């Protein structure tokens, strides 16, 4: 394993939409190999979330980018609200594959998030060994159940928003759909990453969720801690 992405190293995963941070949480390195970097995101991890009009139930993707404030929405302290997840980020790929687990450790299915990824160091420079993994979300997702039935998620909003200057181009949309169909075929065939690999993953008990909350680095473009 690479010296910098050593087992258990704490990194920060940030999800952006149109350059605006939606959510950020600490993750731990759970492995690294030819297939990519593995990360563990624990349920309840402390982090940040955009403070949006409409309160805690509001989601950034539901708001018209033309009406976002010029400086972006501020961030407020929050916690990861979904289940724990093992995340595989293949090198150079425009997607990440998530293995979701319930609180008792039961595997709940796969989730493919289509995205652009950039890593930054603490000085805000692009660095493949940096501590901040910044993910620009491309809206469309693929969900795969434990029995390998798959479906698109957010297909309608993906189509409507394609071509918006803050989001993704028509060319990117074509690539996302092609990648999605290729991954769906892998799921149907039961081949990696949908072959049962890591479905029994259990993190060390001392990883926990008692991690330090810290604000985004100088790579931040929109939004800041409130």
TrEMBL record:
Domain DUF402: 76-191
SUPFAM superfamilies (UniProt xref): FomD-like
Transmembrane intervals: none
Annotated InterPro entries: DUF402 (IPR007295), FomD-like_sf (IPR035930)
Region entry Disordered, spans: 206-226
Domain of life, source organism: Bacteria
Name assigned to this protein: DUF402 domain-containing protein
Source organism (scientific name): Streptomyces albidoflavus
